[in-house]
Amino acid sequence: MAIAGWILGNLLTGISYSWWTRKHNLHHANPNHVTDDPDANYPILAMFPEQIADRSKYLLPVIAMQAYLYPFFALFVFISMRVGSIEQLFGRGTPNRIPQAIGIALHWSLFGLLLSQLGGWPEALTFLIVSQLTFSLYNVSVFAPNHKGMAMMSDDNPLDFLRTQVLTARNVRGSRFVDFWYGGLNYQIEHHLFPSMPRNRLSDAQPLIEKFCADRGVSYHETTVAESYQEIFQHLKRASAPIREGRHRA
C-alpha cells in the first residue's frame, strides 16, 4: 500500500500519500461534521451556518458571496493540496518521511524537465498554469458532488453508522461516462459504507444498498451531475445567508 501510494501520490502527482490518507480517514470517520471533517472546513467557506462564528470577520464578505466564488476557489485546490503535503512531511509521526520527500522532489524535478522541453518560458508557464488549474478543477468536479449540501453532523446530534454515512452522502446517477469520470466515486454512499470495496464493484452494490435503506426508512439520495451542482450552489447560498442578512453572530 505504501509503495502504491508513493508511486501514485508522491511521484506522479506530487501529493503526500500519508497526508491524503490521514485526511481521508478523518473524513470517513466524520463525514460532514461541522468541526471534525477536514473536507467540510475551509477558512474561506462556511459549509454550514454554524461555522460562520468561527470564521475571521475579515473573510465574512467573501463568505457571503461563496456560492458565486466557489468555482474560482476551486481553481486553486492544487495549492492547498501541495501545502498540506509539505506540512505533512515536516510534521511529527509522518511515516516514510524521507522516501516521501524524495518522491515529491522527483515529481517536481521530472516536471521541471518536461517544462524545459516545451520551447521557452511562455510555453512552459502556460503549460504549468493550465495543468495545475485542470488538476484542481478535475479534483473538485469529482469530490464536490459527494457531500456538499448534504446533512450536517455534530456532537449534539449523533447518529448510528448507517445514517451517518448515508445521510451525509450524495450519489451521482451513473452512466459509462460518469462512472469513468468519477472513477466509481459517484457511488459515494456505497463507498462510505464499504470503503475497502473495489470501485468497479460499487455499482453492483448500489441497488442492494438502496433497497436496504428504503426498507429501513433511511433517506437515500441520488441525482444527476447537473442537479448535484445545482444543489451545491443553492446550499452554499443558504449557508451564507445569515451574513448577507446580518443575522450572524459577531
What average pLDDT do the residues reach?
A: 94
Which runs of at least 5 residues are low in confidence (pLDDT < 50)? none
Give the strand tally: 2
User: Gap between N and C termini, in Å?
Assistant: 46 Å
Main sheet? 2 strands, parallel
Which secondary-structure class do the elements indicate? mainly alpha
* Oligomeric state of this protein: single chain
Helix-strand pattern: HHHHHHHHEHHHEHH
Helix content, binned percent: 55-70%
Number of domains: 1
Rounded Rg: 20 Å
How much of the residues is beta strand, in percent?
under 5%
Strand order of the largest sheet: 1-2
Q: What's the tally of helices?
A: 13
How would the global form be characterised?
A: globular
Characterise this structure.
A two-stranded parallel sheet has the order 1-2. With 250 residues, the chain is mainly α. Helix content is 61%, strand content 2%. The longest helix has 27 residues, at 121-147. The chain has 13 helices and 2 strands; from the N terminus they run H-H-H-H-H-H-H-H-E-H-H-H-E-H-H. The chain has one domain (2-244). The chain starts with a helix and ends in a 6-residue tail after the last helix. The chain has helices at 2-13, 17-29, 60-64, 66-74, 77-90, 97-116, 121-147, 161-167, 176-182, 188-193, 202-215, 225-239, 241-244, and strands at 171-172, 222-223.
